[in-house]
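Re: beginner question about structure tokens

> Can someone show what the tokenized structure looks like for a real chain? I only ever see the sequence side.

Sure, here's an example I had lying around. Input first:
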Amino acid sequence: MSAVYLVLLLLPLVSAQTFHWGPCPSPAVQPGFSVQKYLGRWYEIERLPNSFEKGKCIEANYALRKDGTIRVLNSQLYKDKVSTAEGTAVVRDTREMAKLGVSFSYFTPYSPYWVLTTDYTSLAVVYSCTDILRLFRVEYAWILSRSRFLPPATLRYAKELLVKEGIDISRMKATDQNCKDN
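And the corresponding structure tokens:
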């Protein structure tokens, strides 16, 4: 019974997120992933809903720090103002370089940031999932591009990959990228 109460208490916290019953899937990640090639600016094309991205013109910039960690600088235009969030990404296991961890606070643990596929020049598909007591999971997914728009066939390929890996994309939302470059 106590697990049911815990779930009921946590539901308001994840209402703006995408959650499903059961543990996280284990999708395949990009083989031979190169952090160096991945660095730079990525524009968000589509995403699963989350509570921290409400604006438009969303982008992420990745840069290598001297200590070997990766600086993550996310920005969005929200209510006519640019807001940013700075975080840190790390490679969690050098045997699977595409399985990164990302944190936006010194006080929170690293969340999964798994690059499922990328060609480094036009497309990246990213997935994150956190199990809550193996009862349910909170999922995030992003389709990213080096430009503000993706050809329809490339977007279709990215969505098909997510589905093939067992990720429900029924709530996927397009990001408004009709804006002037920041």
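Each token stands for a local structural state, so reading them left to right follows the chain. Residues 2-14 form the longest helix (13 residues).
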